[in-house]
Design a protein that fits this description.
By secondary structure, this protein is an alpha/beta fold. It folds into 2 domains: 206 residues, UDP-n-acetylglucosamine1-carboxyvinyl-transferase, Chain; 208 residues, UDP-n-acetylglucosamine1-carboxyvinyl-transferase, Chain (Alpha-beta prism). Helix content is 30%, strand content 26%. It has 14 helices and 24 strands. Strand 8 and strand 9 form a beta hairpin. Helix 8 runs parallel beside helix 12. The N and C termini lie close together (5 Å). It binds ligand EPZ. The site of ligand EPZ has 23 residues, from helix 1, helix 5, helix 6 and helix 12.
Length: 423
Amino acid sequence: MSVWHIAGGRRLSGSVRVQGAKNAVLPIMAASVLAPCLTELTNVPELRDVDATIRILRGLGCAVERQGGAVSIDSRPLARAEIPHSLMRELRSSVIFLGALLGRCSGARLSMPGGCELGPRPIDLHLMSLRALGAEIDERAGELVCSVPQGLRGAAIALPLPSVGATENAMLAACLARGETVIMNAAREPEIAELQNFLNKLGADVSGAGTPTVTIRGRPLDPGRVEHRIMPDRIVSSTYLAACAAAGGDIELTGVNPTHFSTVLRSLSECGCDIMADGGGVRLVSSGNLRAPMPVITGPYPAFPTDAQPLMLSACLRARGTSVFVENVFQNRFRFTEELARLGARIHTEGRVAVVTGVEALHGAPAVATDLRGGAALIIAALSAEGETDILDSGHIERGYERFDANLRALGADITLIDTKGP
Ligand code: EPZ
């Protein structure tokens, strides 16, 4: 258990180089087992979720070395296609290994990934897609027992909703299927294009990522050695900007692609922040006295990202007027607002809608991080609150934020992360 201790009321200023994207590196690390090869990744963020993925790769028999932001994965010694429950429970998104293992090993055995703090996390679209490609999947006793008796074959897959994970899983398995696969209503997130770039470096033939139709022409892969630098994290970028918007200040992000979070930039600008963006960086200046933006409505990319909704909501807690948030992606993504209320926030939630009434001031208070982005939202609120806040965290925030306390301190925040060594 950790405690994030924050003394609020300080403006932020300075520059942050943003980490590599968690939601890009996880599927790419899974993809590295598609072919027996050596994968050298750079700009890999130091996160609990990456550590868990490394443990899964080692559990499959791969050799994995990590030196700071560089991770090398040798998948030639891969010896098994099973992921035990102890590892699956650590990382909900580990279901992404299914497609890669079916491609490489023609079978796989995984325990069912659990739900999470955001509500049920079904994988029916993953299984539908893999079955369309020829997989036989038995769901029994909490396990997925998978085989491909006739081998994987190309298919037309129409996703009823543009699921990021299901799109990625189908892409991975289709790389080694006989024939052509077309994924319709595919997710269009930047991480999908990043995965396509990596797969084509492996020798695959993938096109269309970033559009609703992704086409994969299956063929054998024998890349030998592949190098790839992970793209910057658009949600972490949004987090630092929301923190500066709320606390006031003048910060610059480097190593980012502003087009990946343009909807967040637009909402922050509507709040009264001055934003200057160019090819590789973004600067945000805020007085800390914001006004309510136009309603923030989340949806699949290129709509406002669901992962940035808690961050934007927190930045609006003291904004003049009433801010409205509509969460269209996850069922249970407002739990963190109960914790924000402990700092004096006025938020009314009704199903998928949250209405924030701006308050004059927030005050420090003890609170609990309910999930990864909800925890980051609490830190944003604490930075702009009067007084001190202690956030109890069972490790949620460190799943997605690398050196978050050190980076915020470098920007002038009074924040300390204490590891209580407790469970
Ligand atoms: C990815 O999750 C991200 N995780 C999430 O980020 C992100 O919030 C989400 O995409 C949406 O952008 C990773 O990339 C590791 P989905 P994923 O499949 O793939 C429903 C974070 O904070 N659905 O696009 O699980 C699902 O319940 C995390 O970094 C099905 O019904 O998201 C949800 O309502 C949180 N059946 C919606 O689709 C399925 O088989 C979107 O889920 C799959 C999903």
